[in-house]
Design goal:
single chain, 281 residues, alpha/beta, 11 helices, globular
Length: 281
């Protein structure tokens, strides 16, 4: 295991089995959501498919060392990467998310924001930001900060929600600032020193339901009950067996495109891998 105290100046071991920083700034993600999603993630087709696509991208473009899952919530991604053989550190500012990650079995957890943990410059080999950047108002400044913490040749892996046209009350309630096109998120990365190696949309099969059940009612001013435990469970569990088989087939088809490094320009989410260039390369 890593000696985290050697690379992060402002953290100390906490009584609950994870590292903690004395100061944590406010974040736009509601703390209550971690507990709601903790009871949903393991049975969710959405979280399962996202993990499979993330793992495929990481296998195609592996980090040159330990992987830091920044803002990783309950550790659902971090545990999958850990089980796949990567050395993983979850960096999560929410106390409940950090607790849930340890309950899930994530071995190395830091309860802090990236900034308040005090990570040094040029110390992180790989950084994951999975549905995190849309919560940051100054996304360019944040990505520039991540860039400074990466080693030369280090990689960043991120997912973000796609297409502002699909904005809904779900985005507002989750604390999002925006949704992205592939060119927009790649442009923000490139303008802050990254070299994009792979970029694609995924969850293409979710665009129709997101449009008809979220975006269109939002445009029409129709209020909808969102974000509660029952609503989240309904969205993430395909109860109908025919629907479940259909989602499985579409997910496997989409995953094959990621595995083969093919690009899809349309989907409900974007997946991007980018590299901090090595000077002189």
């Amino acid at each position: 295991m890593l000696d985290l105290s050697a690379i992060a100046a402002n953290i100390e071991p906490g009584p609950e089995g994870f590292w903690i920083s004395p100061t944590v700034s406010a974040i736009s993600y509601p703390e209550s959501a971690n507990e709601i999603y903790f009871g949903v993630e393991d049975a969710s087709f959405w979280f399962a498919h996202r993990n499979q696509c993330i793992l495929a991208a990481i296998r195609n473009f592996p980090p040159p060392g330990a992987f830091f899952d920044i803002g990783g919530g309950n550790g659902y991604v971090a545990k999958a990467l850990q089980d796949a053989g990567l050395e993983v550190v979850l960096v999560e500012p929410g106390i409940q998310g950090s607790r849930n990650a340890r309950r899930r079995g994530v071995l190395q957890v830091v309860c802090s924001t990236l900034q308040h943990a005090g990570f040094g410059c040029g110390v992180l080999p790989g950084a994951g930001l999975f549905d995190v950047v849309e919560h940051i108002e100054e996304d360019g400044a944040f990505l520039a900060d991540v860039h400074s913490h990466l080693i030369p040749g280090g990689r960043i892996y991120l997912t973000v929600p796609a297409f502002q046209q699909f904005w809904s009350s779900e985005d507002a309630g989750a604390g999002h600032w925006r949704r992205y096109t592939l060119s927009q998120i790649c442009g923000v990365l490139e303008s802050n020193g990254f070299e994009v190696e792979y970029a694609t949309c995924f969850f293409r099969f979710l665009l129709p339901p997101i449009f008809f059940f979220r975006a269109l009612p939002y445009w029409l001013g129709v209020s909808a009950e969102r974000g509660g435990r029952q609503a989240v469970q309904r969205d993430h569990r395909a109860a109908n067996p025919v629907l479940r088989r259909g989602i499985g087939w579409l997910s496997r088809r989409e995953l094959r495109r990621v595995v083969s490094r093919r690009r899809t320009g349309l989907g409900a989410s974007c997946l991007v891998v980018a590299k901090k260039p090595i000077p002189g390369d």
